[in-house]
Amino acid sequence: MRPFQYQRASDASAAVQALGAAAGNNSPLTQATAQPLAGGTTLIDLMKLDVMRPAAIVDINPLAQGWSAIEPGSDGLRLGALARMSDVAAHDEIQRFYPVIANSLKLAASAQLRNMATLGGNVMQRTRCSYFRDVSHDNCNKRHPGSGCAAMEGVNRMHAVLGTSDQCIATYPGDFAQALIALDATVEITGRSGIRSMPFADLHKAPGNSPDIETTLQPGELISAFAVPGRWPRSVYLKARDRQSYEFALSSAAIALDVQDGVIRDARVALGGVATVPWRAHDAEALLKGQKFNDDMAERAADAAFAGAVGRRHNSFKIALGKRVVARALQQAAMMEI
Amino acid sequence: MTAAAPEPKANMGQPVPRYDAVSKVTGRATYASDMPLANPAYAFLVTSAIAKGRVDSFDVDDARRVRGVIDIVTHENAPKLKESKLFSNGGYAGTTIQPLKSADIAHDGQIIAVVVAESYEAAREAANRVKVGYTAATPSATFDSPGTTTAAAKGQNAMFKEDPKVGDFAKAFQDAEVQLTAAYETPTQHHNPMELFSTSCVWMGDNLVIYEPSQYLYGLKNGVAEQLGIDADKVRVVNPYVGGGFGSRGSMTPRTAIIAGIARRLNRPVKLVPTRDQGFTIATYRAETRHEIRLGASRDGKLVALRHDGAEVSSRPDAYCVGGTKTTTRLYACPNVDSLVSIVRADRNTPGFMRSPPEVPYLFALESAMDELAVKLNMDPVELRRINDTTTEPIGGKPYTSRSLMACFDEAAKAFGWSQRSPAPKSMSDGDWLIGYGCAATCYPTQMAPSAARVRLQRDGRTRVEIAGHEIGTGAYTVIAQTAAERLGVPLEKVSVFMGDTELPPAPVAGGSNSTASTCSAVMMVCDQVRQRLFKAVMPADSLTDRAKETVGMGQTPTAQAARSDRPLDIEKAFDALGVGVVEEYGEWKPDGAPLDSFKAMHSGHARLVGGAAMKDRIAYAFGAEFVEVRVNRFTHEIRSPRLVGAFAAGRIMNPRTARSQLMGGLIWGMSSALLEVTEIDERYARYVNDNLADYLVPVNADVPDVEVILLSEQDDLINPAGAKGLGELANVGTNAAICNAIYHATGQRIRKLPVRLENIEV
């Protein structure tokens, strides 16, 4: 870890001012000289590892009072970005009307981490790629654009099979983001010039030719809230992993179905643990919509979800695994008694 | 009594709580890096980013500018140290790769510089700012990597004396009615004890004090003295508690002498707390192994031929190997046995002991093969073990001092509900989960080593026991106190035990599960010396002493005397007769068959373990049987093991509570080894990739909801005075095979490579 300045933001405008003022240069957000601190569960780790070297930390926890509300309504849900994962996961109405959200949070990390980590920080969590997190490896396009990718031909069991490029195959590690992208959430962003909203699906950027740019968030901007339209009581989050708790997904599926009179009126399919960004499987959804559910269709939808997947030496299994996870999660959602 | 404190059966001590329990859970127990130091400087290691080649240049300008940096030590200015030989060649070291000696790099993560600063933070920041230029060569990472060399272990490792064989394997195998040939693999694993590989070195004039977690205080004391070229009497190692060892702290690592040398030069205490990832490369690990097992049997299940070939990875300069064939060739009755162990040299740090070093990989292979043979024979795997059970080992025909293997199988099978198993694979399930039951034998050699102890008894019964033993989390303080209390007939609460300091009488390495047997045997002997002095005071004439042996039970414990209503010794009367307030005795104990130089070696920090298969006229092992339930998800192929049951017999159980705790930890460790633990190696660079506890998986509570330990009563008077067999390394041995055997039962799929992960399952 390197020495840094610590400032505690008194309010939202002070926070974005402090973050924006330090931005100065044109570097991507992750390299910005000032970084916001909420739960600290990713940032502090990466600073200890010398991966992130901010000169200043802006503690935004004082904003919690205005930014941590959990507000379920009849036509949608609003979640403050500083709500703690554990509070949202334990919320009665979230469990009832948005099981996919509650379970994506409950199945993530450990109880201690969920008590610290915030929703905003969670969606901004950076990849667990071992080569990215170990600065003794010089070749990481995410840390040093143009330096190459050690994971491509290295130990890549945990890496992505969807949304990869020849520059980067690092997996987006989170769970909650899959629920958000599945439910067409919007993200509310507070910046120096006010508040803007955009689809959550536009927040993360696939690596392409610039894996160092991970989101469309700009220095001086903070996620202040998420909004989810509608209610999705028929929804599940299924997560396959090496151990029973406290472990990232090898493959996960966030599924939400709207079934009326046996017909699927709307279907949402998102994939975790297998893609470089939160991943929505629109082709799978298209196959399901307007149909009556059966197991065969679940399998066809799962195949469609992984149509473009590219496996590598250690992670090819994720394609077959991911399909089975999607198919099973669809079955579980279809079988739910609402 | 509770599950945590089982009711003692015959030949078991009381399940008294740990002496150190409260201080540990309240954080008051002082570990090495907790020791307060006066004005310390802080060291931080810089380790190599390549596995083979040399350092061309250091750019330290940026690092030196960090405020508080005192010195940056590289091979160009490092303190000169003498070499230490590998422990197996009569030295103390766990590796002969001595960092900072030259620019050469022999493995990933080798220490190449040490930054010393006024604070830990400054040292770490400066270390991050050191820029290193390398000339890298292509390293050989592991099995099958170009550039490795392979040779038989015999002849290159002094501790591996022979490849056991008997009869005519080739012919017997060829003629066997049923044959099985199968290959198995185990992965690289790291101990990852909770406490990091810290060390603090403090000089007072010519005298050095080292605070370091160690499983062998006297080895470290003598080894560091040798490297520094000073008299061992000038080195003291202090370490009252060890935050886990599992073998990783059994032999000296290079870091200690380096830090001691820097502290001497600075004339100031130096404290080093390396990071978790550095622990993967500055200490040892369990090397990956490969095995081929060939079994020949008659139709009724009797083994007629057994061959076990093993191969293990080691470093370029050091021929470390575990050579578990000494156990696997002797476990079952079989007239024709052959074996061969080979060592494959690669560009790696030198591997070393890790909990049950030989038995874990070698029994995984044998006990998996036994299950495969049972399938071929269409026989219950428990019955196959029964048919081949033996009271004499087949290689030398020596009798087992005691062997409760089948009793363990029967007890564990009953508790587990083995009879509920439907034998056909894929025949049991529960919703999304396929269910499999599996079992395996477990065993571990009973070993002892010379040990000394000092015991001081006061007139009021207060007792002080001194021994440079090691509290590695096993409950050593507690069982030593129990032993002294029982032997002297004083209440347990009056006994204080002092350990973890080389100012105290030497104890052997806390390895090979010899500690309890060795230290307690020594403490018993010295307690008897104390009692002898008191007896002689009461009954000074020799003839009366003889009578005292009968009437007050000299040679018996006071408890045994009381049980027989013999007259116990009145301690206060004896003190009055002796005319003193304190009786103190020192003694040195050695096991039967210990080599002639045992006591000399004990003081100079060389472990002389005897026992197991290496004794002249007998063979001593602890045994157990392990049963596991495995669940494999039909859809995700996730593998869980929600139920583990083990039954174990290990001679006298000194304390059922601490014994259960060790065995329970062993079962969990074994499950972890089978399903989770692997150090991933990037073969291109011969580098460890998942060198942290987020990516190197160990179980969480949710993985082990139900673990049952059954302790069997067993008496063995042929092993050591304490009658105890080591059990710290017993329970984690059989689990690997038991899990794979259960996976076979659940899925019909035989998996011969660890760890088993969901991508290996094809349901």
Give, in spatial order, the strands making up the sheet with the most strands of chain A.
Answer: 4-5-8-6-7
Q: What would you call the quaternary organization?
A: heterodimer
Structural class of chain B: alpha+beta
Structural class of chain A: alpha+beta
How many separate helices of chain B? Answer: 19
Q: Rounded to an integer, what's the Rg of chain A over CA atoms? A: 19 Å
Q: What is the name of the CATH architecture of one domain in chain B?
A: 2-Layer Sandwich
Task: Give Rg of chain B in angstroms.
Answer: 27 Å
> What global shape of chain A is seen?
globular
**Average pLDDT for all residues of chain B:** 96
Strand content of the residues of chain B, in percent? 15-25%
Second rung of CATH, namely the architecture of the largest domain in chain A: 2-Layer Sandwich
Task: Walk me through this protein's architecture.
The complex is a heterodimer of chains A (338) and B (763). Chain A has 338 residues and is of the alpha+beta class. Chain A has 3 domains: 5-62, Uridine Diphospho-n-acetylenolpyruvylglucosamine Reductase, domain 2; 64-123 and 177-229, Uridine Diphospho-n-acetylenolpyruvylglucosamine Reductase, domain 3 (2-Layer Sandwich); 235-335, CO dehydrogenase flavoprotein, C-terminal domain (Enolase-like, domain 1, 2-Layer Sandwich), CATH 3.30.390.50. Helices cover 30% and strands 20% of the residues of chain A. Chain A has a 5-stranded antiparallel β-sheet with strand order 4-5-8-6-7. A 4-stranded antiparallel β-sheet of chain A has the order 9-10-11-12, with helices on both faces. Chain A has a 3-stranded parallel β-sheet with strand order 1-3-2, with helices on one face. In chain A, strand 4 (70-73) and strand 5 form a beta hairpin. The two termini of chain B are 44 Å apart. The longest helix of chain B has 24 residues, at 515-538. Chain B has 19 helices and 28 strands. Among the domains of chain B are: 356-446 and 612-678 and 687-763, Aldehyde oxidase/xanthine dehydrogenase, molybdopterin binding domain (Aldehyde Oxidoreductase, domain 4), CATH 3.30.365.10; 448-606, Aldehyde oxidase/xanthine dehydrogenase, molybdopterin binding domain (Aldehyde Oxidoreductase, domain 4, 2-Layer Sandwich). Chain B has 763 residues and is an alpha+beta fold. In chain B, strands 3-5-1-12-9-10-11 form a 7-stranded mixed β-sheet, sandwiched between helices. In chain B, strands 7-15-14-13-8 form a 5-stranded mixed β-sheet, with helices on both faces. In chain B, strands 16-17-24-25-28 form a 5-stranded mixed β-sheet, sandwiched between helices. The interface between A and B is medium-sized, with 36 and 34 residues.
